[in-house]
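ok, trying the design again with the full structure, not the truncated one.
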């Protein structure tokens, strides 16, 4: 395969799958990891992507919510349904931003709970459910990704407490570290972790292992992970060795 064609395939893969590791790209394209690294270096130099730890992401990786929602939709719904089944009447839950959380919210209908979120898609899904006491955190509207961000959101998080946080991620590194690529969301995720007694990471197998610009937390901050059977086995083992309960669906 010509280098130009291979690099175009790399960009297409990143746009479809999101941030990807060198190993994953090498497997998909049938070339060595050294070749992929050279391609990524050239594409980065050309201003067509951004290198991150262990891989790369497109410059426009903060894709519109509706576009991200269509990626691995069945897997997202499977992990969301399993996570929602953990919730019992009377609980207070905190829901992170992201498309998987919207699906989780949909499966919470009919439960007598309190839900706290900065996710506008979650708010839209639950606002007409009389069984749900719904608390929307304030902040600046991030329209492309249907969320509220900024210091106001962080201040609000310091005023609330939840029994359980359902946390999203852009990727989980091989050592179990939870990563993200949207820097404005990272302090909010950390504040959510502090505001909850239990942290459940909800992420389909496509995010194992994953990449990201910033480390949100380590496996020691997680109580459980809900993922699909396609998740990287070595990463699952690293999480389990750190004492995390890994639930596969």
């Amino acid at each position: 395969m010509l280098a130009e064609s291979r690099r175009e395939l790399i960009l297409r893969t990143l746009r479809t799958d999101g941030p990807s590791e060198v190993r994953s790209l090498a497997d998909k394209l049938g070339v060595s990891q050294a070749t992929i690294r050279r391609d990524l270096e050239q594409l980065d130099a050309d201003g067509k992507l951004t290198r991150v730890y262990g891989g790369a992401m497109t410059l426009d990786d903060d894709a519109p919510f509706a576009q991200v929602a269509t990626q691995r939709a069945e897997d997202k719904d499977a992990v969301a349904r399993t996570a929602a089944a953990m919730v019992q009447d009377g609980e207070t839950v905190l829901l992170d931003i992201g498309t998987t959380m919207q699906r989780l919210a949909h499966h919470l209908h009919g439960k007598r709970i309190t839900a706290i979120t900065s996710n506008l898609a979650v708010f839209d899904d639950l606002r007409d459910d009389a069984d749900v006491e719904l608390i929307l955190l304030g902040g600046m509207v991030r329209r492309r990704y249907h969320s509220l961000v900024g210091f106001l959101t962080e201040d609000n998080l310091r005023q609330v407490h939840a029994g359980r946080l359902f946390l999203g991620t852009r990727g989980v590194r091989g050592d179990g570290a939870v990563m993200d690529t949207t820097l404005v969301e990272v302090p909010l995720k950390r504040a959510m972790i502090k505001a909850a007694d239990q942290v459940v990471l909800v992420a389909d197998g496509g995010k194992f292992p994953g990449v990201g610009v910033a480390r949100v937390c380590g496996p020691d901050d997680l109580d459980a992970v809900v993922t699909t059977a396609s998740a990287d086995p070595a990463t699952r083992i690293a999480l389990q060795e750190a004492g995390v309960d890994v639930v596969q669906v």
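Keeping the full-length input from now on. The chain is about 35% helix and 25% strand.
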